[in-house]
Amino acid sequence: MNRKPTRRQVVLGAAAAVTATVLGTGSRAVAAPTVGSADDCGERYQGYRDIDRDRPYAHYMAERTAPAPTVVTDTYAGPPLSPDAVPGFGSITTDLAPSGYSTVETGYGQRADGVTFVAVRTVMPRVTAAMWDWWFGWHSTEAARYKLWHPDAHLFAALAEDRTALDIPDKAKYVGNTTFVDEYVGPKLQQLGIGFRDPIAHGFDVPSDQTIVFGRVGSSIAPVDLGWLAHQVRPVDGGAEMRSRFHMNLRGLHVPDVKQAACAVRRGASVDPTDLVLGLDLARDLMLHCGQEMNHLAGFLPELYAEFRG
Fold first, then answer.
1. Which Pfam families does the UniProt entry name for this protein (predicted)?
2. Cα distance between residue 105 and residue 244, in whole Å
3. Which residues, in sequence order, are bridge partners of residue 225?
4. Which of 15, 114, 134, 289 is the most exposed place for a label (fewest CB within 10 A)?
């Protein structure tokens, strides 16, 4: 009996087909000026190079990423949430309400329908929501800036549109924009395109002293969306707290950025259609990665903001 393909099979099949096309385009584009030179595409590398040490923000560069908070490392060492304890994506706007807390503030798990979930709460002394809105508009214009966030795992970053010099609010510099990153999540290299969306348009309640960074996570090579992320920053005594959420394996299709896809291939493609199925190991590693990078950057974000916000 013939069976209709599932949505997952359709998405993965489309990803495989278009990935093959892009990979072919990328391999031919080595000599094609329309794609750009290697300098235009940038290089992927770990740590910092001498040229990075000449950046005006070099004094914030660390050789290693600060450890994640104890609650994250303890959760990492423990079991995942049971499938029935994992909240659905449909509840994210109430999960990240302006006040109160959820049943799960730090944890990871996978629902019976295959959707993986990550939650991380990070306490950030001296930090404000405005600092994070500035950071998300500023950090992806240079790979060295992105590395400040997680010097162990962040390898490359670029923006679809550099808006840093525009006289617009900090939030407008990243909402509606896409950042393309190469980074390790655990042992696995990921090449991602994160399209930032307006959280209020999605239904979030965002008071003026808070922010929510909301984005669609996808592959930077294949035209496949992988899930959603949201980082809520709200004030607490002495600073702020960030409540991060990831809901993965919520797939869709998007129009690929052909130039960025070809550049990602040039840097060394990591894409594999099987990587588009994100299991518990990835969720566990993502929880640790998020705990590390948010805690690390929060340690010097107030000084960085004061020096470069302008």
1. DAPG_hydrolase (PF18089)
2. 8
3. 218, 252
4. 114
